[in-house]
Write a structure and sequence with these properties.
Length: 695
Amino acid sequence: MSTVARTDASEIAVHWKEEEYIQPSARFIGQANLTDPGVVERFTEEKFPECFREYADLLTWDEYWHTTLDTSRPPFWKWFVGGRLNASYNCVDRHLAAHKNKAALIFVPEAETEPAHALTYQELYTRVNEVAAVLRDFCGLTAGDRVTIHMPMILELPITMLACARLGIIHSVVFGGFSGEAAGLRAADSDSRVMIYADAYYRNGKLIDHKANADIAVRTAEGEGQRIEKVLVWRRHPGQDLTNAAMVPGRDYYMDDLLKGYRRVKVAPVSVESEHPLFLMYTSGSTGKPKGCQHRTGGYLAYVTGTAKYYQDLHPEDVYWCMADIGWITGHSYIVYGPLALGATSVIFEGVPNYPDAGRPWRIAEQLDVNIFHTSPTAIRMLRKAGPDEPAKYAYRFKHMTTVGEPIEPEAWRWYHEVVGKGEAVIVDTWWQTETGGFLITTKPALDPMKAGSAGPPALGIFPVIYDENGKEIPGGSGKAGNICIRNPWPSIMQTIWKDDDRFVRQYYAKYCRNPKSTDWRDWPYFAADGAVLAPDGYYRILGRVDDVINVAGHRIGTKEVESACLTVPQVAEAAVVPVVDEIRGRMPTIYVSLKPGVADPQKVSEQIVATVETIIGKIARPKGVHIVPDLPKTRSGKIMRRILAAISNRMDTGDVTTLANPEIVEQIRKQVQGEGPVEMQEGPEDVKHFGEQE
Ligand code: PRX
């Protein structure tokens, strides 16, 4: 494992034990999509950007493009310019000739008493068309309109997304676990006038009433000046009333009622320009306001299709299960768009991995003959803890597995490989982000050896670099960490932040742009806000976020968003949110607040803070702890020193605090959080150690 010591402000020295290489099995290589080592030659920097033709050619274009990459207005790159296509056609219609009776999606309900339901490509086609007819004819939506979809993991979610794509409507899916308020704010930001909900879903053995969130979302959006004209509600069991929330006449409509009027209606796919936005996905950044990452149709679809084929090794005859939620980018790219564009079979699971017990995922794998499995380090750690011997009890056989979303420690990786993968499945550890649309660093599963804890070499056609704070390149093998950047554009890089071009440039390009006037892409490295180290063999190891984002179980939580939520509690004077290491979830937010004078019941305020964070953001941002302290440590200019609070929460050295305006508070908080006795100090992981430094 790594031990890391800071040497000066811009360089971090990293020493860790290199893990052994593990080779893919001959059995895997024998059937893999990508076995020609010559592929590397096809994707060299000299061949860029034309190399990405190979991915675009996996799609069916209505009109072929004339320019692969247009760099005339950096960093607003344009891909496959002049091309026209439809994403829904590519994911559905074009498979009918060869695969119409093959399962496109298999829905696995949470309750084991409810059977899995396979939807063939023909059935998917029929349903997508009918829903598109509702959106077009009942809602009056046309290409370029935005629709906010706040739904759980049920078949109707990808059906609705594909119906939007069929019409060129830009969908904005909000993770089902986000609160109604969070969904309403995102609907307002995207000017959606239609929201799509589900009435209820099953999770952890309980029926969750989701429709109530729709009412909150509509109210929140209206508070922001955005009227929601229609709320379409999918029923988990058509015809049955599962929600206690009333349907508002003239605004709320059950989809199963509406669809009766559109039976077997066909809607021609609308051919859109390659650059037409396909979707928005809101994600957290370093300010209080989530940003709408805007993804294009042609470049995005080409890249996720190519990468799903080469790195996930999807073939039409595979049964592929990605256990992520479609409400995150992983689900968009690698449950819906990539797999369906390839004509694969993709599993959608409603429930949580460890309900009713930690054997559930392996029972699903056995029953459905899943042979490609995709999950996160958090799920791996959780399943390992709850049932380390469970996988061996089930007769499934994975050929391939993915890990994504957080750094994975070699120990968890090895359990995944030996126990879940039964020593046979190849593993890809894929590093990427909401902004990047698809994988950026990963091994090529049949060509590169695996190394536990390392994401691997860059993906084909991706040219990363690690810079120090001053823009000096940190070479591979130097044992030093820095900020990972990508030197070149690629087809699935986001187009912009919805309605905020300036923030897009500031956030991702301003830091290392060499010449803002230049139209040469070489002057515009993309800043990913992750720390990384490059080993002598060209493998990257990702250390975690370098900004105010906390990676909770692979999901991004903006500390500023949580702080803003805390400040809405009237008794709270000041709030600071810092990451604390969690054995299962990687990191969790911990809250420090000081109260206004005269508050009688701090315990009650604590509970109120937790409830408020859950209401404004969602349960996913629930803090690991709330510390009500007399004051927060501050510099003489009044800046809250979050770095010191992170050190206290993680039992790390707080460093020199004598220059603070209130140095005495540090020891007071330390005792309150850690207790009176001596405490064994920890080294602490990189992201926590440097948390708050950029402020
Ligand atoms: O810190 C990195 C971490 O997740 C962040 C991106 O989060 P999000 O946009 O929600 O997308 C998650 C799914 C792609 C990154 O900035 N991250 C993602 N994949 C890895 C990772 N950290 C280490 N290893 C990975 N494989």
